[in-house]
């Protein structure tokens, strides 16, 4: 390993944008695929790797839902949380805000609300000595008003202990016609003390980011890379310092950018926007959070001091208590260039 790799490995990190089902390791997916029948997911490792070669974002969404169909019992949900947490802890990740789409488990797979929440709570407690796990509940936007109502009902009636945020993901264009129901869900979430963290500007233009800000009260924005198309939006993001959850490898794999060299991350930083670095769906994209730091370091030329600043951005943009933020920032300072 190079000195840069050693620094990245030692760097304390937080992860703000990673999905529960998308974080399932290849061995975990293979185990679920072999245990459950009647699905399209390959049960051979090499075939599964090819299964994860995405043509575009709609194809990625199709594969994601196929893998989600393997999560059929509350025990599967807990196993995914524990697996993702252990993978992150091994990368010196101190804290994760793990995005869960309860609609996919409760409505699509028929699990009881109480059982899903209990599985999330049990798993978070099980790994608490290695990593702190918080949750973000996520509306699958392609299911519209039904998903918005079901997700906020779960969040308000039976939330997991560590629920901190409320978001929306999926194919952004499919939100059309459901805007008011989605806004209502976010208003209720914020009234209950949850933070607004919608995906926006990943596969659609700046108008989706504006809706996230004006309609959903976004405190952070998942992806947001299409902001570069709107100078007024860039200026607003620079002034307000709303953090962007940037996931470079994900954007390449889903064909939102042609390659890493073309990724707007350096431009966003040069323009003074607030950027955090995240992994999104790491096994599906053949990456890890550490891998994202390596990609930015080696392929985009970021030196250790700039990588440490990205790590600090993640801590400050998290929903951790201030004293915990201060502690992790101190750990970053201890290993960083002076």
The run of helices and strands is HEHHHHEHHEHEHEEHEHEHHEHHHH
- Largest sheet composition: 5 strands, parallel
SS-based structural class? alpha/beta
CATH third-level topology: TIM Barrel
Shape: globular
Distance between the termini: 22 Å
CATH class identity: Alpha Beta
CATH superfamily, called what? Metal-dependent hydrolases
As a whole number of angstroms, the C-alpha radius of gyration is 19 Å
How many domains make up the coordinates? Answer: 1
What number is the mean pLDDT? 94
Total number of strands: 9
What does this structure look like?
With 338 residues, the protein is of the alpha/beta class. It has helices at residues 3-10, 26-35, 45-51, 57-68, 74-89, 102-106, 113-126, 144-157, 179-191, 206-214, 231-240, 248-253, 265-270, 282-285, 289-299, 304-317, 322-335, and strands at residues 13-19, 93-100, 132-140, 163-169, 195-196, 199-200, 221-223, 244-246, 275-277. It has 17 helices and 9 strands. The chain has a 5-stranded parallel sheet with strand order 1-2-3-4-5, with helices on both faces. Strands 6-7-8-9 form a 4-stranded parallel sheet. Strand 4 (163-169), helix 9 (179-191) and strand 5 (195-196) form a beta-alpha-beta unit. Helix 5 packs parallel to helix 7 (113-126). The protein is globular, with a radius of gyration of 19 Å.
